[in-house]
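Please fill in the sequence for the structure shown.

STRUCTURE ENCODING:
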C-alpha cells in the first residue's frame, strides 16, 4: 500500500515537471520571434512619381534679358518698334519702376522715336541731293571729256568751274553719298542699342536706397623686392 502511494506521488511529480517544461518552451519560442507591425495601406493613396524636372532646381529667368532680347528683335525689324515695346513695359507696370510716375520716361522714349525717324529723314534728303549733284557733275565731266575740255553750253555750270573743279565736285558728292549710307547704319545700330539698354535698365534697381561711397584705399602687391602699396580710391555701392 505504501509502495502504491509512493509510486503515485512520483508519477504526479514527473507529469507536473513535464507539463511545466512544455509550457516554458512554448513561451520562449513565442518570445523569440520578432513580430513586425505592418501598417495598412489606404486604397485611395496614389504614389507620386518623381520626374527629372521635379528633381532639378528650377532655372532662374532674368526678366531684363528677356525684355532686352524682345526689344532688340523688334528694333531690328522696324526701327523704333523696340522703343514702343519699352513704353508698353512701362504701361504694364513691370520692373523696378513699377508704381512710379512714368510720364517723363514715356515722353523721353517718344522723343527718341521721333529723333530716329528725323535722322532717317534728314539722311534720305541728303542722299537724294548728293545723288542729284553727283549726276550733274558727272554729266558735265563726261561732256568735257568728249569735247576736248569745252564746257557744256546747256549745262548748269557753264564756264564757272574748270575741269579739275568739276572732277573734285563729282568726287565730293560721291563721297557724301557713301557717308550717308554709313550714317544710315549708325542710326540703325543706335536704335537697336538704345532699345536694348532701355529694356535692361527698366529692371535694374534704381530706387532711393541705391547709393555709393568713395573712400581712400591702398592696392597691395608682393614683388621680388618686397611689399608695395599704391594709393587708390575705393568705390562701394549700396543696394
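FILLED IN BY: designer on duty
SEQUENCE:
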Amino acid at each position: 500500500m505504501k509502495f502504491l502511494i509512493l509510486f503515485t506521488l512520483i508519477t504526479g511529480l514527473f507529469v507536473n515537471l513535464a507539463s511545466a517544461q512544455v509550457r516554458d518552451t512554448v513561451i520562449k519560442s513565442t518570445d523569440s520571434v520578432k513580430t513586425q507591425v505592418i501598417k495598412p495601406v489606404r486604397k485611395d493613396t496614389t504614389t507620386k512619381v518623381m520626374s527629372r524636372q521635379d528633381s532639378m532646381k528650377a532655372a532662374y529667368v532674368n526678366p531684363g534679358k528677356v525684355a532686352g532680347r524682345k526689344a532688340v528683335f523688334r528694333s531690328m525689324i522696324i526701327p523704333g518698334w523696340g522703343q514702343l515695346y519699352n513704353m508698353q513695359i512701362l504701361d504694364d507696370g513691370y520692373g523696378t519702376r513699377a508704381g512710379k510716375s512714368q510720364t517723363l520716361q514715356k515722353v523721353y522714349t517718344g522723343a527718341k522715336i521721333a529723333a530716329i525717324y528725323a535722322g532717317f529723314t534728314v539722311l534720305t534728303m541728303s542722299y537724294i541731293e548728293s545723288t542729284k549733284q553727283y549726276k550733274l557733275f558727272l554729266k558735265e565731266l563726261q561732256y568735257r571729256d568728249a569735247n576736248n575740255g569745252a564746257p557744256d553750253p546747256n549745262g548748269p555750270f557753264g564756264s564757272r568751274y574748270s575741269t579739275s573743279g568739276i572732277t573734285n565736285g563729282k568726287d565730293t558728292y560721291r563721297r557724301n553719298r557713301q557717308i550717308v549710307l554709313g550714317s544710315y547704319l549708325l542710326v540703325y545700330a543706335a536704335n537697336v542699342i538704345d532699345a536694348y539698354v532701355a529694356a535692361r535698365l527698366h529692371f535694374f534697381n534704381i530706387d532711393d536706397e541705391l547709393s555709393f561711397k568713395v573712400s581712400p584705399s591702398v592696392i597691395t602687391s608682393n614683388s621680388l623686392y618686397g611689399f608695395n602699396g599704391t594709393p587708390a580710391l575705393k568705390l562701394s555701392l549700396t543696394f
